Amino acid sequence: MAERGSYAKGVARREEILAAALDVFSREGYRGTSLREVAKQVGVSLPGLMHYFESKEHLLTAILQKRDEVDTATYSSNDDLIDGLVRIMRHNRDVPGLVQLFITLAAAAEDPSHPAHPFFIDRYSVVLSTLADAIRDRQAAGTARADLDPEHIARVLVAVADGIQIQWALDRSVDMAGDIERLWAALSA
Q1: CB atoms < 10 A from the CB of 149, how many?
Q2: Which of 2, 90, 96, 132 gives the lowest tally of CB atoms within 10 Å of its CB?
C-alpha cells in the first residue's frame, strides 16, 4: 500500500510542477524562464524538480502536453472544433511565452531523436483528424462547401495557425484568430 500512496504523491507533485511551469512559461517565455524559478515556485530544489523528468527537454514537452490538455478542456467545443481553434488562437495572445515555447520546440522536434518529436507527431495526427471531422460535420450540416477535401483543409488550417503564431511572435499586431476566421470564411463560402 505504501507504494501506491508514494506513487500517487509523485503523480500529484509532477502535476503541481507542470501547473507551476505552465504559469511561469506563459508569463516569462522560453528564454526568460529559469527552471530554478519553477522549482522555487513549487518549493523544491532544481534536482528535486528534475527528479520527475528525464531531461529539460522532457519537462518542456510535458509543459506543452499540459498546455494542450488545459486548452482543449477550456477553449475547445464538442459542438465545433473550428470555433475552438479560433478561441485557442485568441487565448494564445495572452500567453506569449507558451507560443514561444511551442515554436521553439516544434522546430527542435523535427529531429527524430528529440524528446518532443513523438509529441508533435501524435499531436498533429489528432489535431488534423479532429479538424477534418469538424469540417465533415459542417459539410453534413450544410454550413461548409461539399467540395472541400476535409483532410486537405484541416492541414491548411493547422499550417496557417502555426505560421500565424510565428508571425505574431514577430509582430504582435497580427490578429491570429481573425486571420483564421477570415481564412475559414473564404474557404467555406
Answers
A1: 11
A2: 2
